Task: structure prediction
Amino acid sequence: MPRTVKLRCVSPYDFDLSMRLFSRGDKQIRRYEEGKFRQVIRIDGKLVLVTLKATGTVDMPEVSADLESDQEISAEDEKKCKHLLGILLGADFELQPFYHEAKKDKIMAGIVKKLAGLKVPSTVTVFEALVDSIVEQQISLTVAHVLQVNLVRRYGDSLKLETGIYYAYPTPQKLALAKIEDMRKCGLSTRKAEYIRNVSEMIAEGKLDLETFKRYADVAKIITELDEIKGIGVWTAELTWSGECRSTTRFR
Result:
C-alpha cells in the first residue's frame, strides 16, 4: 500500500498550471496527466515513485503525495521525500515580492494576472541540472529532450511496480563508469559524453560536491567555480543554476 504525505506550499500556488510543464513527459520517467504528476526520486539509494495531486486551492495550496517502492518506506524516508518534493515544487518560494514589483509595469501586470500561482519546478539535485544543461548545449530543446530521455532510460535505475516500470535519473557513479561509445548511442556528441563522464567521475571520486553550492550566498561564486570544470563554461553554469533554482523546459 502507498504511503501518503501532505505538503503545504506558500500561497499562491497553482498546481495544475505549474505541473503542465510535464504534460509531454515520458510516462516511465516524469509525466503529468489527469491531474496527477509522477516521478521516481532517490532516498538514500532507495527508489520511490511519487504521485502528486492537488488537495488544496491556489490561495490555500496543499499537495498530496503517494509514495510507492519495492522496499519498505520508513518514517525517515517519508521525511526526506517530503523535503525533496518541497524543492521540486518550489513549495517555499515567495511570489508576492515579484508580483508587487511586476504590478508597476502594465505588460508584466497582465502576464502576472494570467499566470498567477505559477511556480516553475526545480531539479531535485544540482547534478541533474548540470547534466541536462550540458546536453542542451547548442541544440534545440526538442532534440535535447529526446537525448535526456535516452540517457535516463539507458543509465537510470529502474523501479518495477504493479503499475509498470519507472526510471530514476542516473547517478554520478553510474555515468562515471559509462563508455563514451555507449553514451553516444543516446545521441550525445563525443565531447558532451566526455564532459558528462568527467563531471560524474569528479563526483564519484569525491573531488566535487555540487550540492554544497546550495549553501552559497554568492551566485557569482557558483558560476565561477562551475566555469572551471572542463566543458561547462559560463553559459552552461548559468543555465545549470537557473535550472536548479527554477527549471524551465528540461522537465517536458
